[in-house]
Amino acid sequence: MNSSVKEQEHEEVFDPLDMQNYRIEKLPKRSKGKFEKWLAIAGVPLAIVSFILLAFVFRIPFLSDIDPERLISSAAKKAYEALGAEGFMRTNIMMLAIFVAALILWITEAIPNYLTSLIIIISLILTKVVPEKEALAQLGHPVMWLNIMSFVLASMLVATGVAKRFALWFIIKFGKNASSIFISFILINLVLSAFISATTAKAAILLPIFMVIASIYGAHSGTRNNFGRSIVLQNLLNINIGAGAFMTGSGANLLAAALIGGAIGGKVFFGDWMMAMFPIMVGLMFIGYLVAMKIYFPLSPEERLPQIEGGMERLREELKKLGKVDVSEVKAIILFILILGFWATDRLHGISATSVAFVGAVIALLPGIGIVKWNDVDIPWHLMLFSAGAYTLGSGFDYTDLPSIAVNAIFDRMGIGQGTPFWLLYILLTGVMVFSALLFQSKTMRAMIFVPIAIGVANRFGFSVISLALPVAFMIEHVYVLPFNSKPAALLYETDQYSISDAFKFGITMMIIAWLLIIIAGETWFRFLGITPNGVFGLF
């Protein structure tokens, strides 16, 4: 009885317009379905058995005779020289066993993802796959600091009321119907993607805004509806693929561009990347909108209207209550605009996105003249540890060159050799890149692994590096299917607005469509731009 009364009281005091209700630690605890519970029970035993079988029982054919001449990673070449053929083979076997076990734990969520990452780090150290200093240093990766500082800045917008003011203005201005809200978020994501080179930062900034809007439309306090599913999953999609429209959209894009530039002895320019991918990514965003609204999460007539008591008039009253923009809001807006400006003009001043965010966060936290207090800052440290494990896994791949060894084995097995048509390599490499997102958490790790493979394949078969490596790099941002595929996916999964099956069916559909579009673009748009040679279907 007491429990029931308390639950009723909680429901009565819950204010869907209060941004503090969407702090990460206040997001509702997820209740798992029957299938998810079964996976969680089976996860740990499956991971242990898989590790033992791969590490000590099974003989892995493609790892028994590694050709050092075909290694791509310089770290792997040094490891081969230091360990010898036998030692290098054992290191690769341990890397494969750890990776598969970690993948099982991530998919089944048998234990928290951050704990899986901690296990990965210590396992790679104890098995001597990665040097201890290198493994532990991943917590200090520049992208980690960029994310931490971006969460400080996002908290500043919430604490000062800027985010709430914007959300209310937004819904009053564009909330006459649900469709205009979704389309408006497409435009917001595109604008932010041009300025912010961290998808987690965009997710942190947008999350309280679209969660308030979801609550207004009836999705709050653990109550799911198709509006909530659609607005969160569409934003997850757009946060990621919006970054793919710009070379500066993420650190992984910049890394891929640097790798390709080094291979061709030149540069991949911002304008070239945007010209190639901006129309494709905008098209994908609108396709995602149609797939969500027409196929998977169609809105009922009730879900198309605000569900909040008092409707739109209540929202106008809430906006009026905020009064005029105060000094703290003005400071927050000015600081945020300055940061966006410095992020967008990094070519002119040469200051990294991480350093810009660092300076902004320091100013925001300064006593007296600052804008936000440390206790008001909302940083998901469990996601930071989760990321550190993924980056350490990436270091393990760099030290072992396991992905390129596996790709060479697959090529040999399939009989892919000289004379192979360009279109087959193009389809294979872009497909491997896009669907690898189902297995990997870190985009940086995928860029480090698969872009060099594409460069190596291009050189091996005598094709232009740009023709294969750049389309592969264009597929980096498709990380929205499963919760462990990216930090934004892990963060938005915590909102409890959708299930894994919701995310999977929507995400895998968009991933397949994205792959088909990149294949079509290879024959048409990329051919026109001179990226692919005379088309990708053997027409040259």
Describe this structure in words.
- This protein is globular.
- 69% of the residues lie in helices and 0% in strands.
- The protein has helices spanning 2-13, 34-57, 74-108, 113-126, 132-136, 142-159, 162-174, 178-195, 199-216, 226-243, 251-264, 270-296, 311-321, 327-344, 346-349, 353-365, 381-400, 402-414, 422-436, 443-461, 465-473, 487-493, 500-523, 525-529.
- The chain has a domain at 142-250 and 279-376.
- It has 540 residues and is mainly alpha-helical.
Features:
mainly alpha, 540 residues, 24 helices, globular
Mean of residue pLDDT? 82
Radius of gyration: 24 Å
**First-last Cα distance:** 77 Å
- Percent helix: 55-70%
Brief write-up:
The chain is mainly alpha-helical and 540 residues long. Helix content is 69%, strand content 0%.
Write the layout of secondary structure elements.
Blueprint: H1 2-13, H2 34-57, H3 74-108, H4 113-126, H5 132-136, H6 142-159, H7 162-174, H8 178-195, H9 199-216, H10 226-243, H11 251-264, H12 270-296, H13 311-321, H14 327-344, H15 346-349, H16 353-365, H17 381-400, H18 402-414, H19 422-436, H20 443-461, H21 465-473, H22 487-493, H23 500-523, H24 525-529
